[in-house]
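REQUEST FORM: STRUCTURE PREDICTION
Request ID: SP-0412
Submitted by: Lab K.M.
Chain count: 1
Length (residues): 442
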Amino acid sequence: MNLDILLAIAGLLLMLCVFANKISDKYGIPALLIFLGLGMLAGSDGVGRIEFHNARLTNVIGTIALAFILFSGGLDTNWQNVKGIAKRGSVLSTAGVLLTAVFLFLFSHDILGLSVEIAMLLSVIVSSTDAPAVFSILRSHNLNVQPRLKALLEFESGSNDPMAVFLSMSAIAFISQADFDLLSLLRSFFLQMSLGIILGLSFGFGACRLLSQFSLPYKGLYPVYGVGVVLLSYSLTQLAGGNGFLAVYLSGIVMGNTSYQYRRHIIRFQDSLAWIMQISMFLILGLLVNPNELFQVMPVSFACTIFLIFIARPLAVWLCLLRSDFTLKEQIFIGWAGFKGAVPIILATYPLIRGFPNSQFLFNLIFFMVIISVLFQGKTLAPLARLLRLNTEKTLNPENPDYISENEEDDDDEEEKEENFSRLSFRKLFRKLLHKEPKEEE
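STATUS: Completed
RESULT:
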């Protein structure tokens, strides 16, 4: 296909995704579901007829996009709220993911009769949650859940993806390697997580230290600096044998809660970049799937999703938060907020790349589970928050993640004044040209 045509299609899809957020805000449909739908419409079975079947390229793009999304999530995480729930959040993002996978494996293998390989890969791949989509739904319904509850979901979403990645890679190794060693697996887990934490914090503090010692000549270079931090923290941690996703998220937390020059510009740029990555990722994932094949997996996928929503995830949350100060209502909400996002679909491309038997069936199964989970839980999450009375009024509390400092408000006011000035100046100039007003004499 001609390059100009490809660029035109890409630009059109991006514009459609931007305005699709209006539909998401109005009807409460998660934006990621709309992005996936647009990708499917542009695919080989849709109106666009774009032939795209490159699982490896999809995996590479998804990995890069996820790194930037996690970094942006770290920047927006308020450490004052997170530090009080970090212990329980860590348990939920590790043991909670493992327990969810175990429960789903038992159901899919013993009840539904799936093979051990498919049941194992399915359970570990869909074990993580997608909290950024949760908060987009809450914002679209003008809800603001309690800061402690929001902090727990934020922390879990940023730190449970590495666990899901580790379990998925371990399951693939278990299936493909005859000499699989459980002891080596445990050593690898502690090594990956330890290096991810150490290097992530080191990159974050080091990046802030450099910004405090040296000032860049141009304001526009600060966002570029942030991009470099993401790429370095992820890649070098991976090369050292650590978990790059965990390192990126922790680097974001450090940089988001440390004071330095033009901090707000980095955060805003990364937020926009995260949106670009999220849209691109879901569009490509939508292109990769064939909608006609989804009907074959519908019964099994629906049964797995219902079990995951109503039994596996709530039971895992209850066990992880046992004897905590989280109320039963809060535990119900946390369990319901565990719906799936892009990570399971990206992880489902690994079996496709390896050429595992029934890997296409597994990919379609996971893809349909994500659609059901997002549509059902995403549509009912806000009403559930109101029903449980967990939404609170927004206040100008410095410990609130939605709080904006006076300096940041001043920056916003200055930008708005400059924009209004430019608009007024343009209107004045346009009227002069239109009416041909004579120049004023000095």
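NOTES: The chain has two domains: 53-403, 409-442.
Reviewed by: T.R.
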